[in-house]
User: What shape does this take?
Amino acid sequence: EVQLVESGGGLVQPGGSLRLSCAASGFPFRRYAMNWVRQAPGNGLEWVSGISSAGGVTSYTDSVKGRFTISRDNVKNTLYLQMNSLKPEDTAVYYCERVDRPAVRGQGTQVTVSS
Assistant: This one.
């Protein structure tokens, strides 16, 4: 069974940091590109960042460039998102996503940025 389990979310003050993790199982993780996507209250899904299967190519939406870093460990079958200088507008449920048709996502982890 394919599983993606996100963790690491929480409540943080503006300017703070969080590191999200996504544990993958049930499929050959190293063969798939992966994304982080998010959904803020009342909004649709927004792509945040992506990484190639081997980890050599990364990309980011403009609003997080320079603040977020995506990475992966293909031995531990884990995807990461280091989030620094967090802003209230980063508040959302964050999902890791296997790049596929259809895409496969986990259950999400809540990130709330508030003072």
